[in-house]
Amino acid sequence: MKVYTDNGNFQCLKIQIAAQVTGTKIELVKVKHNECVAPFSRHSKLPILEVKERTFFSPNTAAKYIFLKANKIKDEDAENVFLDWECSELLPLVVAYLLGQGRKDQTVTNRLASALQHLGTSLSKSKFLTGDILSVSDVCVFSTLSLLLGQKNCNLLVERVNIQRWCQDMSSNIAVQSVLNEFMSPASAQEEFKASLTSQTFTPVTSTTNIENPGVERSISLKNSISSEDQTTEKVSQEDLDAVFKAWQTERKDYPKPRVREYPVLPKPNDRNILVTSALPYVNNVPHLGNIIGCVLSADVFSRFAKLRNYNVLYVCGTDEYGTATETKAMEEGVTPKEICDKFNKLHTQIYRWFNIDFDYFGRTTTEQQTKIAQDIFWKLYERNFILKDSIDQLKCTKCDKFLADRFVEGTCPLCGFDDARGDQCDGCGKLLNAVDLVNPKCKICKASPVIVNSQHLFVDLPKLEPLLKSHLDQVFESGTWTHNARVITNSWIRDGLKPRCISRDLKWGTPVPLEGYKDKVFYVWFDAPIGYLSITANYTDQWERWWKNPQQVEMYNFLGKDNVPFHSVIFPACLLGANDGYSVVNHMIATEYLNYEDTKFSKSRNTGVFGDQAETTGIPADVYRFYLLYLRPESQDTAFSWDDFMLKNNSELLNNLGNFINRALSFLFNIFGGVIQEMELNEEDQKLLALVTRELQTYISNLEACRLRDGIRNILMISKLGNQYMQANKPWVLAKGTSDEKCRAGSVVSVSAQVVCLLSVLLNPYMPQTSATIQQQLQAPTSVNIITDSFLPSLPVGHKISKPSPLFQKIEQNFIEGLREKFAGKPAEKSPKKQPSKAATGEATLVPASQEEIDRLTKAVADQGIVVRDLKSSKADPSKVAEQVAILLQLKKDLSLAQGVDPDAKVNGDIGKGKKKGGSGGNKGVGGAVEQAASKKDNQAKQQKQQKKAPAAGDGANIDTALVDKLTKAVADQGTKVREVKAAKAEKSTIDAEVASLLQLKRELAVAQGLDPEAAIGGGGKKGKKK
């Protein structure tokens, strides 16, 4: 990467800091002020980022590109909102203020103050702009705001506590600090800055400037390599126009041809061979819309796209059929487990066929191949000493007379106190559990209390496999596509240290364990189920090993929900690597968050939400469901299916945008020119359209290559929007009635539009395959058009004749939607007291602590606000102003108490509220403490004597030394920053451990000063639960 910039250009800070934060290498090329670097550009526009064949003129887009390449963006939608706000609102105001316009026009200062107020509001909600991690929007906004920090007589940031805290956090970051020091180090830095600033052109501040709250989400059409800034300010370059013209001159015989797929699909040398898997759906569940978008539909979109790119792709899936759930379902229905599996495998197959999921093979796990391959992997692990033998305690329901699988046990989580945890995982804290560790466990089948029975079992030795796994993960994290949640979940497992994991169960229905002494057991589902990918492929072709034992030629993509990540990223890869049999191991992992239904969750028992077998009964085409599910695909956060939004997206995006353009273009071609493609004499406006469409095409390719499936839909909709604008601007229906030249022009317009329609039909195929086929039938398009190339090529030759077009989509009416909403609302959940986490031993209510980053943020906020209060008091400020700031401090302390898992309103010796608070520091004990009750001097002395004998616990009501608390609070915040920085710098483990130890000691001292239990304040210091 090469960056062209002039000396003193503050906008280059955005790119340099982005590179420094992400560890990206860039080459800095210094040029003169006003120098025109790009040969096709008439004006100087610095800085410029050059990456191979691409050039970024927008600093925000360049910085974002660097973060995207480093996989450092968690919520792209949120980033785009702030980046758009910075370049269109904040930057022009800051520049105008610096150039003196604020002195001439008070409205500039007022508007800038208003913008800063909104920024402060956004920063009050989280440590950084989009969460608790420094992001690209922080880099860009800070780079602009840093210009105000060194300005004399600038009081715009005075008393803006949240912004000051954020600026301090940013400035203290080592990466940011190094860039700022370099920027300001030359003696001539100030002069260079002024010269660069005055040489640049910025958006002028006008009376219509909208100081919009950056925290409010806005519709942004492009969310990857090209931001909305580029769309509104960058014109199509001459280079783009020349590229379009050249592409349209390509001889048709030189067009790339679609790959002819042969059965069976097998890897080929020198091809890009892609193996796509989607998480195996459990057989006795009917999948709902959230299940469908979470794995099979997402994988289908990528698989279809990859095939259109002429990659060699195999997409496999199937039903996961072993385990207690199947046995129980069979018992309920009075049939055998095999019969229940046959029934539901058929149901799943029908559902996915209706949704147009294009598997190369959809199989099942109850096959001979499954037994053969699973036992072979087990024996190889056993022979290499990766299998341990140990006894474990299991839960057995004496009423049902069976051992209970983890998912058939419910109880209270021993880690966070959530009282609706499952035996294998807690939905409250997300931690994996052992069923025997649950407090007050209940059999999910009969609600009886199970008993603990000791049994001998087999374990895979994950600690011994950890070095192999970490080596593989380091490689694929660098080279592969891993969603943010997949990385975070995987890293948390590795960070916490792997533990041996049981791979056998006392069940009947499953793959038999072949080891002597254990033959009455079966393999546990999370050892056995992922091996189903291999056995399903083996049932597809006897040459399955060419896919599964060929890591040099095969790339593997896993599509799944976030709850399945650790089994696919840790346990399954570790077993394959440990077998040492040349297995292909996951290269890319694409995990979604959860899709909810309206304002609740999907529930089969309550008939809430649309399930796969019900979708067809609504009369809505499968493609419309596919479109909407992909439009709101939960890529970075949970989303919710909404019938009102469903109707809106259908009527606005499909009917009025996409469908309108396609039907208009083809109808005019058919009605005016008999459906025959005319000669196309491209003028400048045509070429501009084709250049913009090409830009969207290339961004679409970039999005889908990176599995940003939701963003690809927006590229399609932007192309149809461009087409609509093009038709509206040229009005072919008017031209057709004019002179012969005007009629020829009309022919060009509708024929160019038909080429765009043909391109859309191909780009739509991964998302809406039936709609794509319908468009191509109306176009009478040859199959040769079904390939996605880097350039937009005219696929329909002059003289080609289309058939009569018809509308693609139907309007959905409100009353129809109301009927569906009522139909799938289900029965309301039974009302019960709100669930409160409870202490494992006592059943006593407790609070779930927040993340450490949130605790650190609030700790620092309390320290900063404490300084504000003390300064106001020392300067004898207006009492009302002091009271206002004290109220803010008390609220921050309360928030911190909650974050630490301490009830800020907890009773002190059972006497809260029985008496009045007296003077002094008010009614608060300090950070994280309970409200201090006014007590007699004798009572306070008794408490102090008691606290000399033991560490004070939360709620003891001790007198607090606020000065000491404030001092230690700041020390904790500073040490927390230091710990994060050494971790970010990937320092030696010994260095990190030493800094963490210092942090924990400071936290203990702070807890004692606050009157809290020091061990409880740092999480007890105990280890996580072990297997017994």
From TrEMBL:
Compositional bias ranges of the Low complexity kind: 942-954
Q: What is its main location?
A: cytoplasm
UniProt-annotated stretches for the region Disordered = 824-847, 902-959
Q: Which catalytic reaction applies to this protein?
A: tRNA(Met) + L-methionine + ATP = L-methionyl-tRNA(Met) + AMP + diphosphate
What Pfam families does the entry give? Answer: Anticodon_3 (PF19303), GST_N_5 (PF18485), tRNA-synt_1g (PF09334), WHEP-TRS (PF00458)
- Taking every annotated instance into account, which residue ranges of this chain make up the domain GST C-terminal? 72-205
**GO annotation terms (biological process):** methionyl-tRNA aminoacylation
Keywords attached to this entry: Aminoacyl-tRNA synthetase, ATP-binding, Cytoplasm, Ligase, Nucleotide-binding, Protein biosynthesis, RNA-binding, tRNA-binding
State where composition is biased (Gly residues): 920-929
Q: Mark out the compositionally biased spans (Basic and acidic residues).
A: 824-833
The record's EC number reads 6.1.1.10
Q: Which domain of life is it from?
A: Eukaryota
Where is this protein localized, as stated in its record?
Answer: Cytoplasm
Q: Name one GO molecular function term.
A: ATP binding
Q: Where is the WHEP-TRS domain?
A: 854-910, 964-1020
Q: Name one GO cellular component term.
A: cytosol
- The region annotated as signal peptide is none
Give the family this protein belongs to, as stated in its UniProt record. Belongs to the class-I aminoacyl-tRNA synthetase family.
Report the protein name in the record. Methionine--tRNA ligase, cytoplasmic
Species annotation: Elysia crispata (lettuce slug)
